Automatic annotation (TrEMBL):
Active-site residues, as the UniProt record annotates them: 7, 13, 120
Domain Phosphotyrosine protein phosphatase I: from-to ranges: 1-146
Similarity comment: Belongs to the low molecular weight phosphotyrosine protein phosphatase family.
GO molecular-function term, one example from the UniProt record: protein tyrosine phosphatase activity
Keywords noted in UniProt: Hydrolase, Protein phosphatase
Gene source species: Chryseobacterium hagamense
Keyword Nucleotide-binding: no
Keyword Hydrolase: yes
InterPro entries: LMW_PTPase, Ptyr_pPase, Ptyr_pPase_sf, Tyr_phospatase_low_mol_wt
Name this polypeptide is given: protein-tyrosine-phosphatase
Length: 149
């Protein structure tokens, strides 16, 4: 099972989602992240995201931002989007119905949070990043439960 986490810049939310998800699954699962914009391409995650992950014992400092590619729709089985705008953008890049069906809103895995979004913490502070971490942790636990059962 190959999983791609997607946000806007691939420097805050999806790097955290990638880092957390990797702690939930054994070797052999491909977990990666990408953004819908290429503005931060090649950059490491935002310092605040790195610090929040480190507080929870997860090292995301070596990740690098990259934009989503056409190949990702073939390579990955599941493409989880952090918010509705990101999802709309990702869906617009899918070229077949099969590819489109791989795409979903990350927090929908929690069921009772229909249309729930992982808020963009970019303009916030440490509290916003911690809140994002907790949302991602809950969602990743649920995804791990689904794919490992
Ligand atoms: P992310 O956060 O999508 O969670 O990586 C953002 C990163 C960069 C920008 C906005 C959100 N930006 O406007 O550059």
């Amino acid at each position: 099972m190959n999983i791609l986490m997607v946000c806007l810049g691939n420097i805050c939310r999806s790097p955290l989602a990638e880092g957390i998800m990797k702690t939930k699954v054994p070797d052999g699962f491909l977990i990666d992240s990408a953004g819908t914009i290429s503005m931060h391409e090649g950059k490491h995650p935002d310092k605040r995201a790195v610090e929040t992950a480190a507080k929870h014992g997860i090292d995301i400092s070596k990740q690098r931002s990259r934009p989503i590619t056409a190949g990702d729709f073939e390579k990955f089985d599941k493409i989880y989007c952090m918010d509705i705008d990101v999802m709309a953008d990702v869906v617009s890049k899918a070229r077949t119905e099969k590819q489109r069906q791989k795409v979903s809103l990350f927090l929908e895995v929690l069921g009772d949070h229909e249309n729930a979004e992982v808020p963009d913490p970019y303009w916030g502070g440490a509290d916003e990043f911690e809140n994002v971490f907790q949302l991602l942790e809950g969602g990743c636990n649920k995804i791990a439960g689904q794919i490992l059962s």
